[in-house]
Design brief:
This protein is mainly α. 60% of the residues lie in helices and 4% in strands. Strands 1-2 form a two-stranded antiparallel ribbon. The chain is elongated, with a radius of gyration of 24 Å.
């Protein structure tokens, strides 16, 4: 059945078990089974990692299974496919902590003619945060480390288009990112693509979420400014008693 095949593909990619993937058949792996959404069993009360509509190539790279990545490359799997928020096999392979494993995975991708999508080095990679094995992909894509958000913020139109062509999906936070970029062309593109790919109700929901986030950000900034001003006033009040009697601050 389809359900059994789907779980077989998920387990094969996540566990690095080639026979399970071979059982699914190349046609299915290149088609209906190309993406996976699942959470593995809990260990010690926590979920080690999660995937939401992630290509099997991303699952394999995140779990460090070089042989699975090689097998997918050999059958013609599109290794540029990315998650809904733009995370691709290259991204997670580049984050592996082990230099040997990282180089092995990237070598497979290079051999298949695949390189980084972004025109610039992502912030998380520049900062040296390379550990992908125990990171929740679901959590990763919900933060500012989201590749799609980063590309929009820096005005990298080529990267944004590439991600959208390979499975990324625009959401409300992307319009906020486009506003932050200060790039009118990017803002116009993101709005147009959002309207084109979403229904009227969904687009209105996205715009409502965008307006809500902008309001929240504005309120946070106002509270921060007020808090800073109050702290400055408190500091001045604390300084005053330390001035020796008979002298003014100017005399000191």
């Amino acid at each position: 059945s389809h359900g059994a095949s789907w779980w077989t593909a998920c387990c094969g990619a996540a566990c690095g078990h080639l026979p399970l993937l071979e059982y699914c058949g190349n046609e299915a792996l290149l088609g209906e089974l190309a993406r996976a959404s699942f959470s593995p069993p809990r260990r010690g009360g926590t979920i080690e990692f999660e995937f939401e509509e992630c290509p099997l190539s991303v699952v394999a790279a995140a779990r460090g299974h070089t042989r699975v990545l090689e097998m997918l490359a050999d059958i013609g799997f599109e290794l540029r496919l990315c998650s809904r928020r733009g995370l691709c096999a290259w991204d997670v392979a580049a984050r592996q902590r082990s230099p040997v494993l990282r180089d092995s995975l990237l070598s497979v991708l290079r051999g298949a003619g695949v390189g980084p999508v972004a025109s610039e080095v992502p912030r998380w990679l520049a900062a040296g945060r390379r550990d992908a094995t125990n990171t929740s992909v679901a959590a990763e894509i919900a933060t500012s480390d989201c590749p799609l958000v980063q590309a929009i913020e820096r005005g990298d139109m080529r990267a944004v288009r590439t991600m959208l062509e390979h499975g990324a999906v625009l959401e409300g936070e992307d319009i906020v990112a486009a506003i932050k970029s200060g790039d009118l062309d990017m803002l116009s593109f993101v709005q147009a693509e959002s309207a084109k790919t979403s229904g009227t109700a969904e687009y209105r929901k996205m715009m409502h979420e965008t307006a809500t986030k902008i309001r929240e950000k504005s309120r946070t900034n106002r509270r921060t400014s007020h808090s800073s001003a109050s702290s400055a006033g408190d500091s001045l009040r604390h300084v005053a008693p330390s001035v020796p009697a008979g002298k003014s601050l100017l005399q000191l």
